[in-house]
Amino acid sequence: MTLIVDACPLLLLGAGHMGGALIAGWRRADVVSPRQILIRDPHPGQAALAAGQVGARLDPSDGDLASARTVILALKPQIWRPIAADISARIAADAVVISIMAGVTAADIAQVFPGRPVVRAMPNTAAAVGKGATGVWSADPEARARAHALFAPLGAVADLAEEGLIHAVTAASGSAPAYVYALVEALQRAGASAGLAPEAARTLSRAALIGAAALLEASGEEAGELRRQVTSPKGTTEAALDVLIGEGALDDLVTRTVLAAQARSRQLGGEA
Ligand SMILES: NC(=O)c1ccc[n+]([C@@H]2O[C@H](COP(=O)([O-])OP(=O)(O)OC[C@H]3O[C@@H](n4cnc5c(N)ncnc54)[C@H](OP(=O)(O)O)[C@@H]3O)[C@@H](O)[C@H]2O)c1
Question: Pocket of ligand 1, candidates 58, 72, 76, 125: which has the most ligand atoms within 8 Å of its Cβ, to mutate?
Answer without folding.
Answer: 76
